[in-house]
Amino acid sequence: MSVLSTSSIELIARLNRGDVTSVELTEVSLDAITAQDANIRAFLSTNADAAIAQAKAIDERRKAGQPVGKLAGLPIAIKDNMCTLGLKTTCASRILENFVPPYDAGVVEKLKAADAVIVGKTNLDEFAMGSSTENSAFQVTRNPWNLEHTVGGSSGGSAAAVAARMVPLSLGSDTGGSIRQPAGFCGVVGMKPTYGRVSRYGLIAYASSLDQIGPFATDVASAALLLEVISGHDDRDSTSVDRPVPEYSQTVESAPGRLTGLRVGIAREHFVEGLDREVEAAIKQSLDVYRSLGAEIVELSLPHSKYAIATYYLIAASEASSNLARFDGVHYGHRAAKFDNLIDMYSASRGEGFGAEVKRRIMLGTYALSAGYYDAYYLKALKVRRLIRRDFDAAFERCDVLASPIAPTPAFRLGELVNDPLAMYLSDIYTISANLAGIPGLSLCCGLSSNGLPIGLQLLAAPFEEEKLLRAARMFERATDWHTKRPI
Ligand code: GLN
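That is the input. Now the predicted structure with glutamine docked in place:
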C-alpha cells in the first residue's frame, strides 16, 4: 500500500519527525501519477521538476533547523482554473489552452507559504460547467472505483487524484456542488466553505457570486487543516470576509465523546421520488449513527428548494455570460487564424475556443440579462435566491447541521447524462442551494452501493459555522469506517 494512503495529518507528523522527506513523498506522488493516470486521467499537467526542487528546498530548511510551514512539504494538486505563476492554467478549455498566468492565485500563494508542493493541475468540466468532468475539452476523467463511471464534476480531477491516492490533498472550486458532489462520487472528503471565507483572487471566475474554493482530502481532519491554510481575508477579492480564521485542524478534534445536544436536521423535500433506494438507505443509516452518538434528529422543511435548480441555472449562466466576455481573442485567449473583420474575429475565436456547454450557458445568460427579459428572469431569480437563504436561516434556528444525500444516485456511467443537459442539471438538486445561500457544506463517504461505488453524505451549516460542520463530520468518521475504504 502506498505511503499516500496515510492521512495528511499523519504524513505531516512523519515529515516533521524526519521519518520521510518531502522529496520522497513528492517522488511517490509523481510515480503514482505516471503509473495510474494513463487510466484515470485526473491531471492536465504535472510540474515534476519544479516540485522536486521545491521539496528539496523544504527538506534543506528542515534539516538546517529552520521553520517549515503547516503543510510541511506535502504534495498537492490544484484544479486547473486557479492561476499558478508560470504554470499553464487552461480551465480545460481550448480558449485558454496556452495561457500561462503571470501571477499566483491567493490560495496558491497561501499553499506555497505553508510549504505545500504543487505537483500538477487537475482536469475539470470546461470553465467548471458540468457535473461529470466530461465537458473538459481535453480528456475525460474516470472514477478510480470503476473506470466506466464518472468522477462527478466539475472538480473531478482533484477528487480522483485524492481518491486514487496520487496526492494526499487537492483543491477544487464549488459553484453549485463541484467539490462536494465529486467528493461523494469518489469516496473522499470535500468541503465548500462559506462564501467569502476563502479568497477568489486568481480563481478564473465562472459565477462570481457562487464560486468558492475548498479542500479535498482522505479524511476530515486533513480537510480541516487545508481549509485553515487557505482561509482568510484578501483585499484583492472584494467579497472576501475579514474574520479571524479558527484553528480548524485543532478544533475538529475537540469534539466530546458523544454528541448530546447536537441537532441534526433533515429536510422533508430531500427524501422524495427520484432518490436512489441504496442512497436513501445509506443516509438513513447515517442518521442512526448520529442518533447512537446522542444527537437529536429534527425533521424540517425547505419549502423553496424546489426552485433551486431553475434559480441557480439562471444566475450562474447570467454571471458566466458576463465573466466569459473577456475571452475574445484580444484581452485573453485563443485568436482565430482566419477572419475578415473585427466582429468576425471575435466570433471565430470564441466559436473555435469554447465547447458546446459553455456556449449554451453564454447564450442562456445573455438572454436572461437582456433588457426585455431581465425582470422576468434574472431579477426574479435573485428574489427566489433570497427566499432560499431565508429557508436555511429558519432551518438553522432549529438544527445545528443539516444532513442530506449529495446526489440522487451514486456515480453515474460515463456517457449516461452528457447528451442530456437538463438531466445533468437536475442531478445537482442537493448541492446548489448551499451556493445560492452562501453557506458551508461538506461531503463524506457514508456507504457503498451494491456495485461498489461510494455514497456521499452531505452536511450543511449556517454561515461561518465551519468548525461545527467539521466536528460533526469528524464524529461520524470516528464512529464508522467508510473513510478507510480504498478504490485500488
Ligand atoms: N454542476 C453545476 C454546474 O454545472 C455546478 C458546477 C460547479 O460547482 N462548478 O454549474
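The mean pLDDT is 96.
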